[in-house]
């Protein structure tokens, strides 16, 4: 059974349930949505990420969540907190936030709305001292939202990931401390 972690004006943010993989595959795992995230995944890869997220939630009390649109009851994206787990990053183990929104809900402010709730969760109940977000220079929408959330570009943490296509190979990071977040709210 999924736990509701937060509610916003338009969204319910809830934990991942065992039955969510097919819905994620159908709604979020499209070439356009996944273009800057390594491409479309196989169902077994989604299931493995779900299992990892559920284990993280059970162990540490945070994970990635699904965004459910209140008006329709439909899954419109996912977002949340995990540990930086790319072995090429110099900050493996730090708190990482992230999001994606299905294409037919783009440009409606859902990612920002969800991430403000995730940051409240990260700096409140999770008690993270700081968070990071990872993307590529080519993922303009992603890093623009990071900046809108008050995050700071950290060029000292850039790294190359050969698993991504050339335009996304340089992974860039942004960070935000609890104090910086509190000064904004």
UniProtKB/TrEMBL annotation:
Q: Name one Pfam family in it.
A: Acetyltransf_3
Q: Which domain of life is it from?
A: Bacteria
Q: Which residues form the N-acetyltransferase domain?
A: 11-179
InterPro entries given for it? Acyl_CoA_acyltransferase, GNAT_dom, N-acetyltransferase
Q: What is this protein called?
A: GNAT family N-acetyltransferase
Organism (species):
Qipengyuania psychrotolerans
